[in-house]
From TrEMBL, chain A:
PROSITE patterns: RIBOSOMAL_S24E (PS00529). Keywords: Ribonucleoprotein, Ribosomal protein. The keyword Ribonucleoprotein applies. It comes from Adineta ricciae. The keyword Ribonucleoprotein applies. This is 40S ribosomal protein S24. It comes from the Eukaryota. GO terms for biological process: translation.
UniProtKB/TrEMBL annotation, chain B:
This is Neuroguidin. Belongs to the SAS10 family. PANTHER family: NEUROGUIDIN, SOMETHING ABOUT SILENCING PROTEIN 10-RELATED. It comes from the Eukaryota.
Amino acid sequence: MSDSSFTIRTRKFKSNRLLSRRQMVVDVLHSDRASLSKKDIREKVAQLYRTTTDLVFCFGFNTNFGGGKSTGFALIYDTLDFAKKFEPRYRLARQGVVEPKKTARKQRKERKNRMKKVRGTKKAAVKDAKKK
Amino acid sequence: MADQETIRSRTLKQYKEINEQLREFLKGILQLEKTSLFHDQIQSNSTDSGGVSLLSIKNDLLLQYLINLVAVMSRRSTPNQTLTSASTRSMILRLCEIRTFIEKIRPIEQKLQYQLDKLLKTNVDQQLTFRANMENFDQDVNGNQEANENKTEGEEEEEAKAKIYRPPKLVPVEYNEDFDDKKEKGTVNKRLEHLKRRAYHSDILQEYKERYSDAPEEVYNSERSRFTQQNRAYKEKIAYEEEYLKRLPQTKRERLQLQRSMTNNGNDIMDHLHDADVLFDDNFNGGKKKKGKMSRQTKKKMEKKKNKSIKRLKSRK
């Protein structure tokens, strides 16, 4: 694999004090390589803005038709606490800050439907009961 | 020669007779005029406020036209009358004026046609709908009156209890025979109609039109072409996404548009040869696939069904 580099340009930079973060549009030029992973982009952005990689959240990357250029968004939080507060759960799960739910979606829904049939404190009994 | 003379004598006789008749007619009219009844009738006719004023104007104009026409005819029929005298010229001028007025009224009358037809219709129907009022009949007979009163009271009570809905008795309307041809035949094939409408604007028919029409060729500027519109829409979407930092999902429409833009929609004639087939085929199938050609999806579905049925058979055994 060639060791070609890629360039990152940021546009529409804005410092969002309400959510205590900096947000921007990221343009990645990668003429020789395939599209980049979010990890690489996070590292580069952190380098550019002199922060740590765990405070940078990247998402929404689309590669232009024909390749060579991708566009996406990046958010840089002031602290990890603010990040945990304001970021949606799935993005935190992507980075490993928060563990995703272990139970399957189907099981959760079935459990909820079982609880619907029962009123009051019996719900707790149904919660732990298994399907017959 | 003798024939001509007999014809002449006959025409002269007829002429004299007609003359006599006309004179008597005039005398009669003059006598009528003197009587007061005639005046009253004229005045009553002139003060009718109920009709359509346009029609009364038209009546007056037509009457004036006829009068003038008869005067011109009389001038012509009398021998040794010059037709270029001032009075005849004025009469002919007046005729032309009245003619133009009548012709100007015609489009106005066309616009009013609906109202007039409605008026006529309702007047005709009213004769049929005038019925005797049955309630008034009951009050005359003494013996039956009380019984009917009680009955009506009882009926009213019943109705108040049950609250039956009695629909209002409206004036009956004439039954019109006109109905849509399409609906007579059966269901309207909407898809077919849509395709036909599109075929009218296909390239092939436009070429024919251009070739055989006298109208000048119109060339439109290409600024508002579909491509620029799509471009603009795309740019707007991107601007929104970058402003709000979120990606919008791709709707079905957008996906199809992208697909269409990627396929080669070249302006070859070969691509558009069969566009106008709808209009000329009698059993147009809508460009559907031939028999035996199943799409991949249907093939998959069929396989699934087959496998299921095989499984069921096996498990039963």
